[in-house]
Amino acid sequence: MKVTINSDKELVSEIRSAIKAAEGHCPCAIEWTEDTKCMCKAFRDQIEQGIEGECHCGLYIFTND
């Protein structure tokens, strides 16, 4: 199991800026709660379940490598 940062450096820069503007919350979140703090609960749950893919905003990628 492996979590990596998206390889698109421009996208990563934009997402990190958006996270900073959102006070650490996923920029895709409608509501700001502890569950939407980056790395959000939805993505942590995805990892725990072994489901490969990206987080909502595309910053992190999970693979079962």
Number of domains: 1
**Taking all residues together, what is the mean pLDDT?**
96
Assembly level: single chain
How far apart are the termini?
5 Å
Q: What does the overall shape look like? A: flat
Largest sheet: 3 strands, antiparallel
Number of helices: 2
- Spatial sequence of strands, sheet with the most strands: 1-3-2
Low-confidence stretches: none
Q: What percent of residues adopt helix (DSSP H or I)? A: 25-40%
Cα radius of gyration in angstroms = 11 Å
SSE order in H/E notation? EHHEE
- Secondary structure class reads alpha+beta
What percentage of amino acids are in beta strands?
Answer: 15-25%
Total beta-strand segments = 3
Detail the topology: elements first, then pairings.
Elements: E1 2-5, H1 9-21, H2 41-48, E2 53-54, E3 60-63
Antiparallel strand pairs: 1-3, 2-3
What does this structure look like?
The chain has 65 residues and is of the alpha+beta class. The chain has helices spanning 9-21, 41-48, and strands at residues 2-5, 53-54, 60-63. The protein has a three-stranded antiparallel β-sheet, with helices on one face. The protein is flat, with a radius of gyration of 11 Å. The N and C termini lie close together (5 Å). The model has no long low-confidence stretch (mean pLDDT 96).
